[in-house]
Amino acid sequence: MATKAPSRAQSSAQLKIFAPVPAPRLRMICCAYAGGSAAVFRGWHERLPRDVEVCAVELPGRGARFREPPLRTMRALADDTMVGLLDCADADIVLFGHSMGGVLALELAKRLVDAGRPPLALFASGCAAPHLPSRRRRRLHDLPRDELVQELDLLQGLPAGMLDAQAFIDMFLPTIRADLESRETWRTEIPALPVPIHVLSARHDALVWTPDLGEWQRYSELPLNVRLFDGEHFFIDTHRPDVLAHLSGVLDALPAVAEAAADRAAAPIGQ
């Protein structure tokens, strides 16, 4: 477990820290849904434990990086994010990702494990296990503009209110399309990781089938945790207090869990 020391992480191009925490116990790296920016996680720190520092991933093509061309592969997105993530390695890390962000968070977890810095937990929210076939009727990223918007509307694939402003759609659709391409073309074999996975899902999510949530077990050597919420695909926005209350409870327990695991690993055989 990381020893507490003065925090050295600062907001970077890749990570936005809305409220820096001196000597954080945990850093929570948050990955947004397709088209989402770091702003999705603004204010989250207010409802999470005070010793948890929220670091929101800012990908090219949105937010402060709006003028940068969006990236079109999951590998490129992970490469970009790792540049900022390595600067946060002086504290224990947990990963949170919603929808497409859940897949990115899994890819980051694999890279951190390979680097000898496994995250204490991975929260996969509003995200089907990556190896499952999509519930969409067809790939979205190469559809014509109007068809893509219609499909996203039918599948709850855009945040509430976005379809009310055509100019807003046209501004962000290239980034959404690139994000969809990165998810729909992502093919990789990730083994079971020594990282506990917590699955968060909504009861009325059109993109994630509740009976399949257990498929996430494939990616963890540890028991899977599943929590259902009311709402639809963007329940992290519409039911934010419930989501953050759940996260707070899990985050509060993480150090004890991590210490117990370390003690078991260090104990002589037979004890």
- How far from one another are the termini? 22 Å
Structural Rg: 18 Å
Q: Work out the count of structural domains.
A: 1
User: Would you state the CATH class?
Assistant: Alpha Beta
- The CATH superfamily is identified as Alpha/Beta hydrolase fold, catalytic domain
Structural class: alpha/beta
The number of helices is 6
Would you report the number of β strands? Answer: 7
Portion in strands = 5-15%
Order of helices and strands: EEEHEHEHHEEHH
Query: Which regions have little confidence, pLDDT < 50, spanning 5+ residues?
Result: 1-7, 264-271
Secondary structure: helix percent: 25-40%
The 3D shape can be described as globular
How confident is the prediction overall: mean pLDDT?
87
CATH architecture, by name, is 3-Layer(aba) Sandwich
Characterize the main sheet: 7 strands, mixed
Strand order of the largest sheet: 1-3-2-4-5-6-7
Please name the CATH topology.
Rossmann fold
Question: Which helices and strands appear, and what pairs or packs with what?
Answer:
Blueprint (H helix, E strand, L loop, with lengths): L14 E3 L8 E6 L20 E6 L16 H12 L6 E7 L1 H15 L6 E5 L19 H10 L11 H19 L12 E6 L22 E5 L5 H4 L1 H27 L5
Parallel strand pairs: 2-3, 2-4, 4-5, 5-6, 6-7
Antiparallel strand pairs: 1-3
Helix pairs in contact: 1-2
Question: What does this protein structure show overall?
Answer:
- The chain has 271 residues and is an alpha/beta fold.
- The protein has a single domain (15-135, 187-258), classed as Alpha/Beta hydrolase fold, catalytic domain (Rossmann fold, 3-Layer(aba) Sandwich).
- Helices cover 32% and strands 14% of the residues.
- The chain is built from six helices and seven strands, in the order βββαβαβααββαα.
- The chain has helices at residues 74-85, 100-114, 145-154, 166-184, 235-238, 240-266, and strands at residues 15-17, 26-31, 52-57, 92-98, 121-125, 197-202, 225-229.
- Strands 1-3-2-4-5-6-7 form a seven-stranded mixed β-sheet, with helices on both faces.
- α1 (74-85) crosses α2 (100-114).
- It is globular, with a radius of gyration of 18 Å.
- 42% of the residues are buried.
- The model is unreliable at 1-7 and 264-271 (pLDDT under 50).
